[in-house]
Amino acid sequence: MSREQLVADARAAGRAARHNLRFIRSNPDKVDSSKMPDMEAYLKMLIKFEIVEMKNARRLGRTQLRTRLKELVLSIIAQDRVQANE
């Protein structure tokens, strides 16, 4: 499974977890009260996992952009030095 697919799955799970958490909090009579704390903890864990995966995906993108920009700036500086020596 590719990294992009894992991130997409984590986002979908996080959205569903947010919805389910809102639902069980607004309808406590439909949920077994003895299982409620465990269910909330599990849904919160899924939401945190989604947030972490989104941050990791952004970091990956920033790193690549930073590298590309650094290479571009270095090539411009090198070109200016060559033209200055001529």
Instruction: Output the number of helix runs.
Output: 2
Strand content is under 5%
Distance between the termini: 53 Å
Number of strands: 0
String of helices and strands: HH
Structural class: mainly alpha
Task: Give the averaged pLDDT, no decimals.
Answer: 80
Task: Tell me the helix content.
Answer: over 70%
Note poorly predicted spans.
none
Radius of gyration: 23 Å
Morphology call:
rod-shaped
Q: Explain this structure to me?
A:
It is a single chain. By secondary structure, the protein is mainly α. It contains 2 helices and no strands. The chain has helices at 3-26, 36-85. The protein is rod-shaped, with a radius of gyration of 23 Å. It starts with a helix and ends with a helix. The mean pLDDT is 80.
Which terms summarize this structure?
86 residues; mainly alpha; rod-shaped
